[in-house]
Amino acid sequence: MFGFVKLLFKYRLAFILIIIAVLVKLYQKDVVQLLQIAATRYLNLAANKQTDSVSVQFTDTRGNLYTPEQLATYNGENGAAIYLSLLGAVFDVSRGLKHYGPGCSYNYFVGRDASVSFVSGEFEHYDPKTADDVLSLKPSDLIELAKWQQFYEKEYTYKGKLIGRFYDKEGKSTVYHQKYLALLDQAQIAKAQVDELRNRYPGCNIEWSEAKGTRVWCTTTSGDGKKRDWPGYPRKLYDRDNKNFHCACVPEAELNDPMFKSYENCAFRSEECFYRV
Ligand code: HEM
């Protein structure tokens, strides 16, 4: 025992290092977290020192947080950078000066979040209360917005988050944002189902004449233009809301599926049908 204590004194530095190594291994996760917090604090301090006019707050390593007022200063005027926000995600679009610069076609989007206008095409009357309120948009619009977001992520530089509807002061996703994501998910699932149906039951050929009204008929290339070995029979296939339908070419074996409705005044195996709206 005495010998061990003697050894401990002799090689105390080596023992301390071994103990530290064991502790670091045991608490690896916490150590990494501590280092991250220290780095974030350091970046915060550095940012506050460097920028007086626009104070940038670093809350995580994936980007900065912007207040609407800060974002508005990135308007391309007097050489300023050009930023826009889509669904609360801020992008530097300075590279697209010819689209977004002062006086250019899409300058409306600059320095703010006007997500709704990406699908409404309204570029004149900006109302901050509604400009980024996307929850009441149609499912297809939500998908369109998600595509725009992918476009900006691919083509421009992601800068961070806008404090507001989609992100809170700490940069955390808001309940509103979560609702949007859930609706987008639903919209994408519904679209995948529709796409799958359209793939299985290709569309009909369609033509209109004053004398006969609308004529629908199937051929082995109708719908997507790809050749198949069955032409099918024209049937009405209704959307999920049961209001609108389109003409689908249905193979013989599935003609009795209740999902398909026959055209009025059209024989069960007729290759073409006529109707008026
Ligand atoms: C909802 C309606 C619309 C929206 C939200 C919209 C939005 C945009 C945006 C954001 C850009 C810039 C893309 C980039 O950063 O590279 C753009 C480019 C462009 N848009 Fe539109 N646009 C709309 C409708 C239209 C219409 C109706 C036309 C034609 C009549 C049109 C023609 C163009 C053209 C020619 C470009 C430039 C393409 C290029 O130079 O690469 N846009 N649009």
TrEMBL record:
Name of encoding gene: Dvir\GJ19265
Lineage, highest ranks first: Eukaryota, Metazoa, Ecdysozoa, Arthropoda, Hexapoda
Protein name, entry field: Cytochrome b5 heme-binding domain-containing protein
Gene Ontology cellular component annotations, sorted alphabetically: endomembrane system; membrane
Gene3D superfamilies in the record: Cytochrome b5-like heme/steroid binding domain (3.10.120.10)
Domain of life: Eukaryota
Similarity annotation: Belongs to the cytochrome b5 family. MAPR subfamily.
Pfam families from the UniProt entry: Cyt-b5 (PF00173)
Residue intervals of the Cytochrome b5 heme-binding domain: 66-163
